[in-house]
Amino acid sequence: MGGHVLTRIEKVDYSVEGVPIGEFENILFSGCNFGRADLNGVVFWECVFEDCDLSLATVTDASFRDVHFVGCKMLGFRFDMCNKLGLELAFERCNLNHSVFSGLKLPNTVFTDCTLCEVDFESCDLTGASFSGSDMTRSVFVQSNLKKADFRTAHGFSIDPESNTIQGAKFSMAGLAGLLDKYKLDIS
Fold it and tell me: CA–CA separation, 103 vs 100, rounded Å?
């Protein structure tokens, strides 16, 4: 976030009021509701979303540049529909179940203590990404670049090493079973 002072916007219900088209820069959105809101074409630059609901918001060509999400509910969020130019995200304690990141370049993205169940990471570049403490049950990794990604404290993931690039990725001993799921082994 570069040390900028953030303007704070609290508890606004954008699902009712709508979001004005334009650019939001250095804004801290706290406790706001963007559920099912139309964010199409809106630009968010160096913003923080804290304890917000962004579930099922429409985000066609929306821009998220250096945006942090903390404690947010983001069910079914279609990151794949966002503007890819300058896309830079970080997540902490967010519920991203059923979200779609397919086809995106997200190197070094951090997911800390997130719920990432049934998330689509197909054809995603997650080089150097960190999934610290995250639940990845039934998330999809197909033709994804996971080089140097850190899964050591993540759980519930199933990654096929034959259909993903995993050189240098970090796994714990307990997580190795998630690399062997397709073989239907009984690992104890």
Answer: 9
* Other beta carbons within 10 Å of 155: 15
The class of domain 101-182 in CATH terms is mainly beta
pLDDT 10s digits, 104-129? 999 999 999 999 999 999 999 999 99
Exposure b/e, 36-72, CB count within 10 A at least 16 = b:
ebbbeebbbbbbbbbbbbbbbbebeebbbbbbbbbbb
182: number of Cβ within 10 Å: 12
Using CA atoms, how far apart are residues 166 and 160, in angstroms rounded to an integer? 9
Per the structure block, which two tokens stand in for 179? Answer: 């690399």
Q: Is 20 left (phi over 0), alpha (psi -120 to 50) or beta?
A: beta
Residue type, 162: E
Residues of the chain within CATH 2.160.20.80 domain(s) are 1-91, 101-182
Burial class (CB in 10 A: 0-12, 13-18, 19+), 3: exposed
CATH 2.160.20.80 for domain 1-91, yes or no, is yes
Contact predicate 45/63, CB 8 Å? yes
Half-sphere exposure for 85 (CA within 13 Å, toward CB):
5
pLDDT in tens, 126-158: 999 999 999 999 999 999 999 999 999 999 999
